[in-house]
Design brief:
- With 368 residues, the chain is an all-alpha fold.
- The protein has one domain.
- 71% of the residues lie in helices and 0% in strands.
- Helix 1 packs parallel to helix 9, helix 3 runs antiparallel to helix 4 and helix 8 runs parallel beside helix 10.
């Protein structure tokens, strides 16, 4: 497992270095007036390409080392499963990278790519969510397999956009994905599943290699391609974990990923409440409010450096927010009532924090 982390990290890191040299042309097409822009200069948004290359090498190495080199790793990832996982990830990443290169791909087209990826995951990998963890609904849920398949497709299609929504500052979405990968690997190994643990650790290694360039210097961004890669692979791993082991509560992935998921749902609600389309970008996401109203200005003669330092100071607030959900998810991964309670606690805490920031009622000790 450690070899996988190092290998994928090295490949991703090297690929980022190459993209830094040859990928700046595409960065010039990114407008200066878009609401998501919180950096100076032209930064390539092709980190997803580097991470996808790292994952490709990692998954291929698992198959080659076991089937051809006869290395006894006990991961047992078949060629068919590896190719299916790679194909699903590639479909989603292709849509994201198309936007990262052109900055003209409509949100409906990007959604179509992830929906196709979700349908492909259900077909190639046999994804289905067998239970909701709610006893009164289980009889209805068991009556037909289609609700479980539909929910699995929805998860794989939706989580990439949730990660894309929180991908606004250096290291923010990348470290959230890294934390989730390690939490998933822990629960997989607790159930004796080295195969699924290896799959997410490959993604963790590729993400770590990317983060070496992304945080704190912000030399390359994950882009839509990177966010879609995180979302698709993590969603597939979550569904397969719940599908394979009845001891794992279906609410474990819900609490584990509640920050990006709830950020997406809440953003859709507030946009619809204001009469806007949920697909319209704005600058009122939780992380953007923290940047503007909690992280105070930095005094430096260079404007670009001031923006970079404020950017870097924003992410740790959200990392802490994520850890507060990941820890109980890992501790109570088989206890549905506790997971539901912590999920509800997060939702209430998020809404309270958001409203407090909007109304300028942030405690003094939180402002830096």
């Amino acid at each position: 497992m450690l070899i996988l982390l190092i290998l994928c990290g090295a490949v991703s890191c090297a690929a980022c270095a190459l993209l830094l040299r040859w990928g700046r042309v595409s960065a010039r097409r990114y407008g200066d007036s878009v609401p998501q822009r919180f950096h100076a200069g032209h930064v390539p948004r092709l980190g997803g390409v580097a991470m996808m290359l790292g994952c490709t090498v990692g998954w291929a190495w698992i198959v080659i080392s076991e089937n051809w080199l006869r290395v006894p790793s006990q991961i047992n990832l078949s060629s068919a499963s590896a190719v299916g996982l790679w194909a699903v990830a590639m479909i989603a990443v292709a849509g994201g990278v198309g936007e990262d290169l052109t900055h003209r791909l409509k949100a409906s087209w990007r959604l179509a790519f992830t929906v196709v990826a979700g349908a492909a995951a259900a077909g190639l990998l046999g994804l289905s969510i067998p239970s909701l963890g709610i006893g009164t609904l289980q009889t209805w849920w068991d009556a037909t397999p289609w609700p479980g398949v539909a929910l699995a497709v929805f998860a794989v299609a939706g989580l990439p956009h949730a990660f894309n929504l929180i991908d606004g500052y250096n290291g923010l979405a990348g470290l959230v994905a890294l934390i989730c990968c390690f939490a998933l690997a822990y629960v997989c190994l607790a159930n004796g599943d080295r195969q699924l643990a290896a799959v997410v650790l490959v993604l963790a290694g590729a993400t770590a290699g990317f983060l070496l360039w992304n945080y704190p210097r912000g030399l390359i961004f994950a882009g839509d391609g990177g966010a879609y890669l995180w979302g698709v692979v993590i969603a597939i791993a979550c569904v397969q974990l719940v599908q394979r082991y009845s001891a794992v509560s279906p609410w474990f992935p819900v609490l584990l990923l509640i920050y990006p998921v709830w950020e997406t749902l809440f953003s859709m609600y507030r946009k619809l409440a204001r009469g806007q389309s949920p697909g319209v970008a704005d600058a009122l996401h939780f992380h953007q409010l923290i940047y503007r109203r909690i992280v105070r200005g930095v005094f430096d003669d260079d404007e670009a450096r001031r923006m970079l330092m404020r950017n870097n100071r924003t992410s740790p607030y959200l990392w802490g927010f994520t850890v507060l959900t990941v820890i109980p998810a890992v501790l109570f991964w088989r206890n549905t009532p506790m997971l539901v309670a912590f999920t509800a606690l997060f939702v209430v805490s998020y809404v309270w924090a958001y409203v407090s920031i909007i109304r300028f009622k942030v405690p003094r000790w939180l402002r830096r």
